[in-house]
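Duplicate of earlier report; SRPBCC domain-containing protein input re-posted below.
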Amino acid sequence: MTTTAPTQSLVIEREMSHPPEKIWRALTEGKLIDEWLMKNDFQPVVGHRFQFRSTPVPNWDGIIEGKVLEVEPNARLAYTWASMGMESVVTWTLTPAGSGTHVRMEHAGFPSAESASYKGAKYGWTSFIGKLEQVVGGLQ
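Output:
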């Protein structure tokens, strides 16, 4: 019998005063993803392999490899996130809430909440989601 080590998930939730359709655009259109996350060749198509590209730093080439796992327009998006020998999964869930949207981002697959990768992701995603909200606010 094979057992896998338990993993930790990072979850960030926000209420945004924008409809799910606008947030979905910012999560799935490459040009908009450039503005809040990283340069990319993302397409919201199950099975599509893509890269997020950032400025390399010591011990990191600046590339995150991904594969789209799930696409439910305006509601749910999931993809793998592979970097530095670790693969995890990012899942976005959009739920209408009043005149806006409840946005839930879960990044699953960290070894522990004390790991450097978890702490780095928490810092990064908090910043990225703030930028996401700014980008969405500028959409027509």
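The first strand starts at residue 8 and ends at 16.

Merging into the original ticket.
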